[in-house]
Amino acid sequence: MKLFNSYTNTVEEFKPMDGNKVKMYVCGPTVYDYAHLGHARCYITWDVLYRYLKFKGYDVTYCRNVTDVDDKIINEAIKNNCSETEITTTYIAAYEKLREAMNSPLPDVTPKVTLYMDKIINFIEKLVDNGYAYVINGDVYFRVTKIPNYGDISNRNIDDLLVGARIEENEKKENPLDFCLWKETKVGINWDSPWSKGRPGWHTECVAMINDITPNNRVDIHGGGMDLKFPHHENEEAQAYACCNHSLASIWMHNGMLNINNEKMSKSLGNFILGKDLIEKYGGQVVRWVMNSTHYRA
């Protein structure tokens, strides 16, 4: 069996690390609103791979997380004058309804960020202790320049990023590319930590959960949308090297985006179609069939 590795941009023979067992991790939804068709495509793509691996006789453990703490969730809770838990409970249920309508089985493991907070804080502490992260006024940042292969997943180099990236000025950071691992905040849900009362940065959540779920902080396959290559997956990979001195995954895989009028379908652009609306009109199996009628990376 061969798979296309987004890290090397080559087709490679698939060899699990542990005999017949396959560990597969996919970045899941941030549950602050209904899923659009782009999210639905991600569901279907990795479900097909999961089913095929099992069909081939592999013992697969498929993990897809749920991001249930985020600025978007907090803002939605403030807007609706309710708790973050009420928002996330509502949209987790909506995501599961969409998944079922598209005939996609529930992954084997579905960790929520809020239930892994102690593990996330411990992971950040390790990065601070070994010098890959630093603390300024209650915030914790990752030192990108300490990772010699930073940019390999997205095929970028640090010099180009420094010149061309549109990054908000933050005088607290040592380097404009350094990313936040822990954010001090008094707005919305927060947790106590050695640095401040706050919440984790998005880029550290997945890698910390993989570090806890897998015995050697490494999975056979790490999947997600093409838009996650940079900065999310790049930053995950950097933290894995900082913590364990090896890659987070043997093979990285990315599904293509859904485009409308040559623009990526996105809630921020307002050019999206909700999955539930199209399924109500045509049915989940039809939507699934149409999604599968094109190459997963297209």
Structure report:
The chain is of the alpha/beta class and 298 residues long. It is built from nine helices and twelve strands. The protein has helices at 37-55, 71-80, 84-101, 117-129, 158-164, 202-213, 229-244, 275-282, 284-291; strands at 2-5, 10-13, 21-26, 59-64, 133-136, 139-142, 179-184, 198-200, 219-225, 249-255, 259-260, 263-264. Strands 4-3-9-10 form a four-stranded parallel β-sheet, with helices on one face. The protein has a four-stranded antiparallel β-sheet with strand order 5-6-7-8. Helix 4 (117-129) packs across helix 6. The chain is globular, with a radius of gyration of 19 Å. The two termini are 21 Å apart.
Which features characterize this protein?
four-stranded parallel β-sheet, alpha/beta, 9 helices, 298 residues, globular, four-stranded antiparallel β-sheet, 12 strands
Write a compact overview of the structure shown.
This protein is α/β, with parallel strands linked by helices.
Task: Note the topology.
Layout: E1 2-5, E2 10-13, E3 21-26, H1 37-55, E4 59-64, H2 71-80, H3 84-101, H4 117-129, E5 133-136, E6 139-142, H5 158-164, E7 179-184, E8 198-200, H6 202-213, E9 219-225, H7 229-244, E10 249-255, E11 259-260, E12 263-264, H8 275-282, H9 284-291
Parallel strand pairs: 3-4, 3-9, 9-10
Antiparallel strand pairs: 1-2, 5-6, 6-7, 7-8, 11-12
Helix pairs in contact: 2-3, 4-6, 6-7, 8-9
The amount of helix comes to 25-40%
User: What structural category arises from helix and sheet content?
Assistant: alpha/beta
What proportion strand?
A: 15-25%
Indicate the low-confidence ranges by residue numbers. Answer: none
Rg of Cα set: 19 Å
Q: What's the β-strand tally?
A: 12
Shape: globular
Number of separate helices:
9
Separation of the first and last Cα atoms: 21 Å
Average of the residue pLDDT scores: 93
* Helix-strand topology string: EEEHEHHHEEHEEHEHEEEHH
Strand order within the widest beta sheet: 4-3-9-10
Largest sheet: 4 strands, parallel
